[in-house]
Design a protein that fits this description.
Elements (H helix, E strand, L loop, with lengths): L3 E8 L3 E3 L14 H12 L1 E7 H12 L8 H9 L1 E5 L12 E4 L3 H10 L4 E6 L1 H9 L5 E7 L7 E2 L10 E8 L5 E7 L3
Parallel strand pairs: 1-6, 1-7, 3-4, 3-6, 4-5
Antiparallel strand pairs: 2-8, 7-10, 9-10
Length: about 190
């Protein structure tokens, strides 16, 4: 069965974005080792799931990437992978290559995606969408990119968790750019 892998950037105090979704506090000057980590993570996947707000930001960015840009090889993956967008607000047809709008129950649709043949499934967000996946226990691996900043308040991916939610540490690694990646798996009892 395919795994659902979350890749998300967080502040040290656990926020995926500022109160209005701002991302200006995040570290973007990644070192080569962190870029290689992301490449390895994406190479094990062939499908991306995300919420509508993130789709609107990512679709224009990655689909307009030029061949001479250093991120072009990663953009090619983003543009060719299947993308399933979970949104109640998007009404117009999706224009980003290989994208489709999920219209059913998100948990049921993700379980059905996991049962299909193929590589793993990446989750990129946004915070409210990811929070719902966590609440439904749909994430198999958490790749938490902890940025060296505290922002005080903002959007939490753990906002909808009700009660204790135990995780097992699979790996922890620091990178020269200041980001620490913590890889967790749900502790299944």
């Amino acid at each position: 069965m395919r795994k659902v892998k979350l890749q998300v950037q967080l502040s040290v105090d656990g926020f995926a974005g500022g109160p209005e979704g701002q991302m200006d506090h995040l570290t973007w000057n990644w070192d080569e080792a962190l870029k290689n980590y992301v490449t390895e993570l994406t190479d094990t996947s062939d499908t991306i799931i995300m919420g509508g707000v993130l789709y609107q930001g990512m679709s224009g960015y990655w689909s307009s990437m030029k061949e001479d840009d250093e991120q072009y090889s990663f953009a090619t993956k983003m543009n060719t992978y299947d993308k399933v967008v979970f949104s109640h607000s998007i009404q117009e047809p999706l224009t980003w290559n290989n994208s489709r709008l999920a219209t059913g129950d998100a948990a049921a649709e993700i379980r059905e995606l996991k049962a299909r043949p193929g590589k793993d499934i990446l989750v990129y967000g946004g915070a409210r969408f990811v929070s719902g996946l966590i609440r439904e226990n749909l994430i198999d691996e958490y790749h938490l990119f902890v940025n060296p900043v505290v922002i005080g308040n903002g959007l939490s991916i753990f906002a909808s968790v009700d009660g204790a939610f135990k995780l097992e540490l699979a790996a922890a690694r620091g990178f020269a750019c200041g980001i620490a990646v913590l890889e967790y798996r749900p502790k299944r009892v």
